């Protein structure tokens, strides 16, 4: 079945540091890939998505590129802020199928 | 604001009891999903409805059931509650069931079983 593997957290960075959160997936066919973010006390929010190989999703300074050859969708941001502290979830979705989520990576950014 | 409304926000009940969680999807969204989030098991898919019909089932216990009504709101019923059912229950909705359609999550119902 489908699966998503994220790098284990928690991740702690200083403000303005570079962020990478690794995500790899296993799925048949051609899934769409997503990153969601969850702030304390809230539900998950869509951060970015990519629907086909080599697509780059971007939003709020975050980027991720759909790499079919390595089945990866790593999340990056060049300079993190304290307000980026949250839990980040990688997810995939195949046509006609449910979304499959990774276990989430907790990011803490210190001033 | 995602546009998905879940009630109640918090629920405290005793073992053996039954509760109903309610979800109103985002306007125009036909698909509703229920997820359980616990500390040790991450985000677990329970069930999906599309326009009133069950579309997919995940790791949903037999003690749990759900339905989607003609006005597209959904209810998740949890019965014979056990301590291990304590978790955050999220409802999400999407415009379609297609792979490109992202999920929009509510803020969840925190269930505590004592």
Task: Give an account of the 3D structure.
The complex is a heterodimer of chains A (111) and B (114). With 111 residues, chain A is mainly beta. Chain A is built from no helices and twelve strands. Chain A has strands at residues 3-6, 11-14, 19-21, 23-26, 32-38, 44-50, 56-59, 62-65, 75-77, 86-93, 99-101, 105-110. In chain A, strands 2, 5, 6, 10, 11 and 12 form a six-stranded mixed β-sheet that branches. In chain A, strands 3-9-8-7 form a four-stranded antiparallel β-sheet, with no helix packed on it. The radius of gyration of chain A is 13 Å and the shape is globular. Chain B is mainly β and 114 residues long. In chain B, 0% of the residues lie in helices and 53% in strands. Chain B has strands at 5-7, 10-13, 19-24, 31-38, 42-50, 53-57, 64-68, 74-78, 87-94, 104-105, 109-113. In chain B, the strands form two sheets. In chain B, strands 2, 4, 5, 6, 9, 10 and 11 form a seven-stranded mixed β-sheet that branches. Chain B has a four-stranded antiparallel β-sheet with strand order 1-3-8-7, with no helix packed on it. In chain B, strand 7 and strand 8 (74-78) form a beta hairpin. The interface between A and B is medium-sized, with 25 and 23 residues.
Attribute tags:
heterodimer, A: 111 residues, mainly beta, globular, B: 114 residues, 4-stranded antiparallel sheet, 11 strands, 0% helix
User: How many DSSP E strands of chain A?
Assistant: 12
Low-confidence stretches of chain A: none
Terminal CA distance of chain A reads 41 Å
Q: Which structural category fits the helices and strands of chain A?
A: mainly beta
* Estimated radius of gyration of chain A: 13 Å
How does the major sheet of chain A shape up?
6 strands, mixed
What is the global morphology of chain B? globular
The overall pLDDT average of chain A reads 94
Shape of chain A: globular
- Counting DSSP H or I runs of 4 or more residues, the number of helices of chain B is 0
Helix content of chain B: under 10%
Order of helices and strands of chain A: EEEEEEEEEEEE
Give, in order, the helices and strands of chain B: EEEEEEEEEEE
Pairing-aware structural class of the strands and helices of chain B?
mainly beta
């Amino acid at each position: 079945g489908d699966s998503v593997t994220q790098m284990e957290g928690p991740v702690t960075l200083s403000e303005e540091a570079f962020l990478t959160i690794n995500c790899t997936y296993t799925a048949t066919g051609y899934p769409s890939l997503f990153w969601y973010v969850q702030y304390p006390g809230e539900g998950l929010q869509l951060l970015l998505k990519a629907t086909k190989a080599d697509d780059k999703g971007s939003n709020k300074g975050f980027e991720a590129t759909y790499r079919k050859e390595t089945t990866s969708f790593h999340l990056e941001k060049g300079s993190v802020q304290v307000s980026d502290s949250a839990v980040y979830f990688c997810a995939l979705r195949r046509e006609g199928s449910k979304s499959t989520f990774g276990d989430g990576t907790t990011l803490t950014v210190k001033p | 604001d995602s546009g998905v409304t879940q009630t109640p926000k918090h629920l405290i009940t005793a073992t053996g009891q039954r509760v109903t969680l309610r979800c109103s999807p985002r306007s125009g969204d036909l698909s509703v999903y229920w997820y359980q989030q616990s500390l040790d098991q991450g985000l677990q898919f329970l069930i999906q409805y599309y326009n009133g019909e069950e579309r997919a089932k995940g790791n949903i216990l037999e003690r749990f059931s759900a339905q989607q009504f003609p006005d597209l709101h959904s209810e998740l019923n949890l019965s014979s509650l056990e301590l291990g059912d304590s978790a955050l229950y999220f409802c999400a909705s999407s415009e379609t069931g297609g792979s490109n359609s992202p999920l929009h999550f509510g803020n969840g119902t925190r269930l505590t079983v004592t």
